[in-house]
Amino acid sequence: MEAADIIQTMSFPRMLLVKQNFPDRSLADIPGTVQKELTEAGFGGGLALGSTVAIGVGSRGISNIATIVKAVVSYWKAKGMNPFIFPAMGSHGAATAEGQADVLAHYGIIEETMGCPIRSSLEVISLGLTPEGIEAFLDKHASTADGIMLVGRVKQHTDFAGKLESGLFKMMGIGLGKWAGAKNYHTHAYRLGMEAVIRSVGTQVLSTGKILGGMAILEDAYHNTAKLTAVPVDKMLELEEGLLEITKSWAPSLPGNLDVLMIDEIGKHISGAGMDTKVVNRGTQGEYNPWPNTPKIERIYLRDLSSISYGNGVGLGLSDIVHDRLIAKLDTNPTWINALTASTPSAAKTPIHYSSDRECLERIARTVGKHNLTDVRFGWIQNTLEISLLALSENMRAEIEANPLLEIVQEAHDLPFDAEGNLPFGVFASSHSGDTVAAH
Length: 440
What we know:
Blueprint: H1 3-9, E1 15-20, H2 30-41, E2 52-57, H3 65-78, E3 82-87, H4 97-106, H5 111-114, E4 124-129, E5 135-139, H6 140-143, E6 147-153, H7 168-175, H8 178-192, H9 194-206, E7 211-219, E8 225-232, H10 236-250, E9 258-263, H11 277-280, E10 297-302, E11 321-323, H12 324-329, H13 332-341, E12 352-354, H14 357-365, E13 378-381, E14 389-393, H15 397-402, E15 406-413
Parallel strand pairs: 2-3, 2-6, 6-7, 9-10, 9-13, 10-11, 11-12
Antiparallel strand pairs: 1-14, 1-15, 4-5, 7-8, 13-14
Helix pairs in contact: 2-3, 7-9, 8-9
């Protein structure tokens, strides 16, 4: 009997569709909250009528980002200012001005909808050396403005843990520094640590007097916009550290240890590392299960690359096995630029890959120390932003039923392989709702 025939006869555990019941913290009125926050914080009080305000916007998949940015633009226009938007990104968008403008356009951030110009360039000016010897940079367009405001999400970083991780301070460094800054800062971070670099460069950028502050966005476990906070420049550090603690307390996680986690898609809009390393418990240098108090994941199987990632497959190297379809969609140019800029070449390594879901799952499931596939603990998610609904193998039923935050919404089904051994996208149709769950 051929190996392929053996694979076709292997039995997998049946899968339960499970809902994680996280608190829903979504804001009802996003534009109104933006206006209220900026007004109460007194943004623009020191600017003369007609001043130019550069609004820096990043590249992550932030919910309602176009609505938030438009409300920020409207605030400045109502104050009699002349705002423009610029991409506050490092090497994203394949490290080109056109690519970064395209990233914003995908989120609906274009001149026609925002009501102000979009100015994208990789040109920077030098701000000199920080006390730690790091040359800091600033987007050239932003440097010509009378004031700079940042719009960004405060969240856990994929590479490190600290009191200051992803947020406005990081945008002041890597975002405002563009590709030149990103390359330089990640090189220093290899020696000093990223948090130290963010603090050092952020302080240097603040010394220009150009920064007005920012709009900090916090999201709940469902990826809803949960909190919007106007952060004045004189309170940026203390407020951001406090906001990070809040968002850490809201962060979702997988409900238990898994032998094999199957992920439908990775992408740059999902996470800087393609997938949230603090959900899948991986390090960007290839470390397995480095994050404490996080479920252990023995093996990761990636099925596809999101079209919104524009071929950037950074993060595939953190997995153990991938489908051929992901490899076919990979554009090595932005992937390698991103990984090398971030000093994380492991994140761009090409894993083992096969042409069917069945073969990938069967091959990798044999590496977790269990002789029978029916004993392997499987999980299946769409991506690391969408983990409120997931499939878990039936051999986890007892702990699912014992967890008050978990609800079985569809009883056990066999994995729905087609004749070629492939699975549909989205965990499977839910008999609970009658709709297809997490359609790809």
